[in-house]
Amino acid sequence: MDLSDLAKMKDMMGQARQMQEQMERKLSETIVEASTGGGVVTVRMNGKKEVLRLKIEPSAIGSSGSDLELLEDLITAAINEAGRRADEAMKSSVAGLMGGLDLPGLT
């Protein structure tokens, strides 16, 4: 391996680092939202799958134990749906950043 090969490898590593930084920034900036129960529970999440906001309509809080179980199910469903949407948004973003490259495991 000569010096020009090492320089090319160093350039490639720099490009990979930049791409990773872009991905991290994109993950933080991508926001998705999902609702369940006709809008009773709404979850806002970023591309890193961090829950940013959980909103529960006051009408969801009832007096019986079955209301609580239903509310728990709605929260779980909303979080899972927001996670799926975050995955879809990031899959689309990765495809755009990769410029159409077909790399196994990334898209």
Question: What are the SSEs and their pairings?
Answer:
Blueprint: H1 3-29, E1 31-36, E2 41-46, E3 51-56, H2 65-97
Antiparallel strand pairs: 1-2, 2-3
Helix pairs in contact: 1-2
Describe what you observe in this structure:
With 107 residues, this protein is α+β, with helices and mostly antiparallel strands. It has one domain (31-107): Ybab, Chain: A (2-Layer Sandwich). The protein contains two helices and three strands; from the N terminus they run αβββα. The chain has helices spanning 3-29, 65-97; strands at residues 31-36, 41-46, 51-56. Strands 1-2-3 form a three-stranded antiparallel sheet. Strand 1 and strand 2 form a beta hairpin. Helix 1 (3-29) runs antiparallel to helix 2 (65-97). It is rod-shaped and about 75 Å long. The model has no long low-confidence stretch (mean pLDDT 82).
Q: Uncertain runs with pLDDT below 50, 5 residues or more?
A: none
Tell me the CATH topology.
Ybab, Chain: A
Radius of gyration: 21 Å
Largest sheet: 3 strands, antiparallel
Strand order of the largest sheet: 1-2-3
The CATH level-2 architecture is identified as 2-Layer Sandwich
Integer average pLDDT: 82
String of helices and strands:
HEEEH
Q: Strand portion, in percent? A: 15-25%
- Molecular shape: rod-shaped
Tally of alpha and pi helices: 2
Q: Could you state the CATH homologous superfamily?
A: Nucleoid-associated protein YbaB-like domain
Report the top-level CATH class.
Answer: Alpha Beta
Number of strand elements = 3
Structural class by SSE content = alpha+beta
